[in-house]
TrEMBL record:
Protein name: Dihydroneopterin aldolase
GO molecular function, a single term: dihydroneopterin aldolase activity
Annotated GO biological process: folic acid-containing compound metabolic process
Organism: Rhodosalinus sediminis
InterPro entries, per database record: FolB_dom, GTP-CH-I_C/QueF
Domain Dihydroneopterin aldolase/epimerase: 7-118
Amino acid sequence: MAAESRVELSGLVLETEIGTYGPDDVVPEAHVLDLALGIAPELVLVAEDSMAAIFDYDPLIAELRRLAADGPYETQERLVTRMAAACARQPEIRSLDIALRKRPVHGGTGELGVRLTLDAEGVTALRAGPAPG
């Protein structure tokens, strides 16, 4: 049986400061994180109802929130890079998709963001390379 599984987080509003804005610029009211982490199916298809049998994502979410608050950041890309590195440090994570967006943008409406998707090879390369600060 072929199977894949993910841990998914959507719509997490982060306490962060990203960007530099002038007096006439639209300043974002929120930065929002969506995250999908590929993990081994055996961490979801479990025989027992036990935290020891699954991937405990709570410490990772706490670390991502800490990184967000660690600003200020000039760019969303820098925060996404640091978040990807934090995810790659978790051996259970096989792949990842991180989307960070801000709202509102130009004209006071809409959302604008960046997305990074890494397959297993990309996560392995990030693990092996120097950790982005």
